[in-house]
Design a protein that fits this description.
elongated, about 80 residues, single chain, alpha+beta
Length: about 80
């Protein structure tokens, strides 16, 4: 007998599938217009893509940006994260 319910197992599988559908190069391309760097200059981290809103961190040119979009079809918006004083 499984510790997890069928719904919980399906949710985990779905989350893994959705996250796997997005490559870092796709996220870099989506971030490019907001951060002012070419996609091949952008490093992606901290992806949270399984549920809406989707978010990730984009780094380029010595700057770090928090990027998000309400869903996969929506435009990406990124804001620079300033270092704490």
């Amino acid at each position: 007998m499984s510790v997890f319910s069928k719904t919980e197992r399906m949710t985990v599988c779905f989350s893994m599938l959705v996250t796997a559908c997005y490559s870092q190069s796709q996220l870099a391309a989506a971030s490019s217009g907001s951060v002012g760097c070419a996609p091949d200059e952008i490093q992606i981290a901290d992806e949270s893509l399984a549920f809406d809103p989707q978010s990730w961190t984009a780094r380029c040119g010595g700057k770090t940006f928090h990027c998000a979009r309400p869903n996969a079809g929506a435009p990406t918006q990124c804001a620079e994260r300033k270092a704490a004083p």
